Amino acid sequence: MPLDDDSSDGSQSDSVSETDDADLRSTTSLEEMSRLTSNMLLYKAARARNIAVMLDALSQFADINWKNSDDYGRTPLIQAIFSVCMLCHIHP
């Protein structure tokens, strides 16, 4: 949750939190999404915690165990867990 300007002490952890929140809010354009495989769509939706898009990807037979070789072999489940950790300011 973003901090109000008057409650922030300007510490580095606040700027890291804002960066993490901005990263989680980043979106993929509709055009880019239409070019994604169902596996990558599931992966990105899990990171964004977008259940509707996750369900859509699964309806397109996305593999829940698919590993993204461009991101250390992480699976959609790992991305979902990381996104929650980032919200709680826990960095694995």
Observed structural traits:
mainly alpha; 92 residues; 5 helices; Serine Threonine Protein Phosphatase 5, Tetratricopeptide repeat; single chain
Structure description:
The chain is mostly helical. The protein has one domain: Alpha Horseshoe (Serine Threonine Protein Phosphatase 5, Tetratricopeptide repeat). It has 5 helices and no strands. It is globular and about 30 Å long. The chain starts with 11 loop residues before the first helix and ends in a 5-residue tail after the last helix. The relative contact order is 0.15. Residues 1-25 have low confidence and may be disordered.
Number of helices: 5
The shape is: globular
Total beta-strand segments: 0
Largest sheet: none
Beta content: under 5%
Mean of residue pLDDT?
Answer: 74
Helix content: 55-70%
Tally the structural domains: 1
Q: What's the CATH class label?
A: Mainly Alpha
Query: Can you tell me the CATH architecture?
Result: Alpha Horseshoe
Q: According to CATH, what is the topology?
A: Serine Threonine Protein Phosphatase 5, Tetratricopeptide repeat
User: What is the CA–CA distance across the termini?
Assistant: 19 Å
Quaternary status: single chain
- Helix-and-strand structural type: mainly alpha
CATH superfamily: Ankyrin repeat-containing domain
Topology:
Elements: H1 12-25, H2 30-34, H3 38-48, H4 51-59, H5 76-87
